[in-house]
Design goal:
Layout: H1 2-65, H2 71-92, E1 95-100, E2 105-109, H3 118-127, E3 134-136, E4 139-148, E5 153-160, H4 165-209, H5 220-248, E6 253-258, E7 263-266, H6 268-274, H7 278-283, H8 293-305, E8 308-316, E9 322-334, E10 337-346, H9 348-401, H10 409-432, E11 441-443, H11 445-453, H12 456-464, E12 468-474, E13 480-483, H13 485-502, E14 507-518, E15 531-540, H14 547-550, H15 571-581, E16 585-591, E17 594-604, E18 626-630, H16 634-646, E19 650-654, H17 657-666, E20 671-675, H18 684-694, E21 700-704, H19 710-718, E22 722-725, H20 730-742
Parallel strand pairs: 12-14, 18-19, 18-20, 20-21, 21-22
Antiparallel strand pairs: 1-2, 1-5, 3-4, 4-5, 6-7, 6-10, 8-9, 9-10, 11-13, 13-17, 14-15, 15-17, 16-17
Helix pairs in contact: 1-2, 1-4, 4-5, 9-10, 9-16, 10-15, 11-13, 13-15, 17-18, 18-19
Length: about 750
């Protein structure tokens, strides 16, 4: 740039010097040249005048003597004149040619004309008389011609240019000196410009091009210019530093984008959020940052309607991952070009936290609701168990003493069956109360699923819904779970039953199992810890569940079925509570094409237990062993006593823990059947602790309407030999007592 500037300055100056040179030539040198030509012409004219005077004197002398008409006298006089003229030419070193113009007759010619054709010389002189010098015989001559009319003589005076070489050399040298002086002046002027203009400007511009403050000392004007530029650059740099500090330290991404999507400016936060470097952001189009092109179209449409637009949009990072951006755009004009100032921040974590918080809040509300309902259900189940013990127990006791053909056997069996069916409802209530699935065994999930599909309950279901096809897809072959198999099968039965009932025409229910590793970023239930899980899925091709119902399907007694006829409203509540008891989760997806339930069970490294069929239809009887029944319910004490007596045992019963301790202070028994919950007074665990002080090795069976609660577990750890759940049958009681006595 500085070279172009220097050329722009020097070219006019060089042109001016050339103009001055031409002017010097035209005005001065041309004048000198003309002066020289005039001097040469004057010299030749003077010679010509002398020659004219010689001829004129001769002619005048003829006239004076009156011999002008005498040819001989005229001839003699002419010869004398020619002789005088020839001697004069030798004396003054010039050439002379005299001839008659009428016939070009040569009268006198200097010696050089004798060697050449004088006629040609005359013709050449006549043609180039006013042009000088004239080349003749390898020499150049200045010539002057005049005519002497009395004798019709034409005089041609020739003088060698060498005679004037001194004068012409002076003129030539003046030309050369003038040219040299002009060149030197031009060079000096160019050097002056280079040293005093180009050099300072080059120093200043070079520093500015490197974005460095110029340092110059010398010419005041350039020094002032350098200081001014330096102050401006310092001010500009300070302003730029403040701008960059403000932009780069902003916690949100900021970018300046053209209407065509070219990113002209971006800050560090924009680079960090998108994953692109600042240079890379300048090379891509803004549309590449949006998850879909429609997102940018939406922004352009909204910014065209208002100067400021705010949206939450989906963006893409450099690695292909997406994030939710809180996006604000402002229309701005920069350098007369409409642009978009974009400000955005990654709120993916915030959105996920809000979503997770909403899920946790929903789960907490559901857990609190289920806990409240569970407490109510537990209390109801406990009371129902006590009532059902009579409904189930007394018919069984009566049936033991009736003959096979008794008319009472049918009604008693119906009462007994109804009681057992009511017991399954109580079982569901206890599951809702939580803790029902506390007793664990190690099983393979696929094995449990197949056991249900081979069960009489499943065969009965398929007979009720012949339009439904059951399919199984098992992928869990090596992993096992710690579970309550009864409750797992109960969950599967409830889900398959609901799936079958959801299919009005022909359809399919798929029962599948698979292994799955839960990551924090996958689609598994968000509140599941990371780890390995076995997943049981039940998917149907039914009509689906509405979004309104999905929020309530796990609540007890919430059902779209006819209550008491096709359902109790406890099926999915049992599923939900069972999964909570197993530290697992249930996930539901439903649409118009069907519903899919997925049950996530944590896997265990323990080996699967080999199950043996211990079912024995024959009652195991005793040999008069002494058994003490401790229960606060008169009905339960009576039923237990009658069953035990029928089995061949000697039985005593008491109504409280305190009474049992008093009895054991005076007596000893082979086995105690101990109710865990007794009111008022001490519970079964406390009673057993006191009895062990009296009889350290006392055998006992814990009885409870609940599954193994903390008190039941604690009592078993104290040394109790078994657990029996109320209401119990004679068969279960006989085997439990026999096992405890043998242990």
């Amino acid at each position: 740039m500085i070279n172009r500037l220097f050329i722009k300055i020097t070219l006019p100056i060089v042109a001016l010097m050339m103009l001055l040179g031409v002017s010097w030539y035209v005005v001065v040198l041309r004048t000198v040249h003309d002066f020289t030509s005039q001097n040469i012409h004057a010299d030749l004219k003077n010679l010509s005048s002398q020659l004219f005077d010689v001829a004129d004197r001769g002619f005048m002398e003829l006239l004076k003597n009156g011999a002008a008409g005498d040819k001989i006298s005229v001839r003699i006089q002419q010869v004398d004149c020619l002789d005088i003229i020839e001697r004069s030419s030798f004396a003054q070193n010039f050439k002379i040619l005299i001839y008659k113009e009428q016939n070009n007759k040569i009268l006198l010619a200097s010696d050089f004309t004798k060697q050449i054709n004088t006629t040609n010389i005359i013709l050449r002189i006549q043609q180039r008389l006013n042009n000088s010098p004239i080349p003749i015989a390898d020499k150049n001559f200045h010539a002057h011609q005049f005519h002497f009319s009395p004798w019709d003589w034409t005089f041609l005076v020739l003088k060698d240019t060498q005679a004037y070489v001194g004068l012409t050399d002076k003129v030539r040298n003046l030309y050369y000196v003038s040219a040299v002086v002009l060149l030197i002046c031009t060079a000096l002027l160019v050097w002056y410009l280079f040293h005093n203009i180009k050099k300072p400007l080059s120093s200043i511009i070079s520093a500015v091009s490197k974005e460095e403050p110029p340092e110059y000392q010398g010419t005041y004007e350039f020094e002032f210019l350098a200081k001014t530029i330096k102050n401006m650059m310092r001010s500009l740099q300070n302003s730029k530093n403040r701008y960059r500090a403000l932009i780069d330290n902003a916690p949100i991404g900021i970018a300046l984008v053209t209407q065509k999507g070219v990113i002209t400016e971006a800050n560090k936060a924009a680079s960090d959020i998108t994953g692109y470097s600042l240079d890379e952001l300048g090379d891509i189009n803004a549309i590449d940052l949006y998850k879909t092109p429609d997102e940018r179209k939406k922004i352009l449409k909204e910014t065209s309607n208002k100067s400021i637009a705010r949206n939450e949009l989906n963006f893409k990072r450099k690695d292909g991952t997406t994030f939710i951006g809180n996006f604000t755009t402002v229309d701005v004009i920069i350098d007369n070009e409409p642009m978009i100032l974009s400000m955005f921040e990654d709120i993916t974590g915030q959105k996920e936290a809000e979503q997770e918080h909403a899920i946790m809040e929903t789960s907490l509300r559901r857990a609190q609701k289920m806990e409240t309902i569970g407490m109510m259900a537990g209390g109801v189940a406990h009371d129902l168990n006590n009532i059902l013990s009579g409904i189930v127990g007394y018919p069984e006791v009566l049936l033991l003493g009736l003959p096979a053909d008794s008319k009472l056997r049918g009604p008693l069996e119906a009462i007994h069956e109804s009681g057992k069916r009511a017991g399954t409802v109580v079982e569901d209530l206890l599951t809702v109360a939580r803790g029902a699935a506390a007793t664990r065994e190690v099983h393979n999930l696929s094995t449990l699923a197949q056991e249900y599909l081979d069960s009489p309950e499943c065969r009965k279901l398929t007979s009720l819904y012949p339009q439904v096809t059951l399919q199984q897809q098992y992928k869990t072959t090596k992993t096992a779970i710690s579970c309550s198999p009864v409750h797992i099968k109960k969950c599967l039965m409830n889900l398959v039953t609901n799936a079958a009932e959801a299919i009005l025409d022909k359809g399919t229910v798929i029962i599948s199992t698979c292994d799955h590793h839960v990551h924090t970023s996958d689609s598994s239930p968000s509140d599941l810890p990371e780890g390995h899980y076995s997943v049981l899925s039940v998917c149907d091709s039914g009509s689906g569940i509405s979004e309104q119902d999905l929020e309530h399907i796990f609540e007890p007694f919430y059902t779209r079925k006819v209550m008491g006829r096709s359902g109790t409203g406890l099926g999915l509540a049992v599923v939900w509570n069972t999964m909570e008891d197993h530290d697992g989760r249930v996930q539901v997806a439903s649409n118009a094409e069907g519903t899919c339930f997925q049950l996530y069970f944590p896997t265990t490294s323990e080996k699967e237990e080999k199950q043996t069929d211990t079912v024995n239809k024959e009652l195991v009887t005793g040999n008069g062993e002494h058994i003490l029944v401790v229960d606060d319910e008169v009905l339960l004490r009576d039923i237990a006593s009658q069953m035990l007596q029928h089995l061949g045992y000697r039985v005593d019963s008491v109504d409280s823990g305190e009474t049992a301790i008093q009895f054991m202070q005076k007596n000893s028994v082979d086995l105690i059947i101990l109710d865990i919950l007794m009111d008022p007074g001490i519970n079964g665990k406390q009673t057993y602790e006191e009895i062990l002080k009296l009889h350290p090795n006392q055998k006992a069976i814990v009885a409870s309407g609940f599954s193994e609660s903390d008190d039941v577990k604690a009592t078993l750890q104290l040394g109790a030999n078994g657990f029996i759940k109320k209401p119990y049958s004679v068969d279960v009681l006989s085997r439990t007592v026999h096992k405890a006595l043998q242990g």
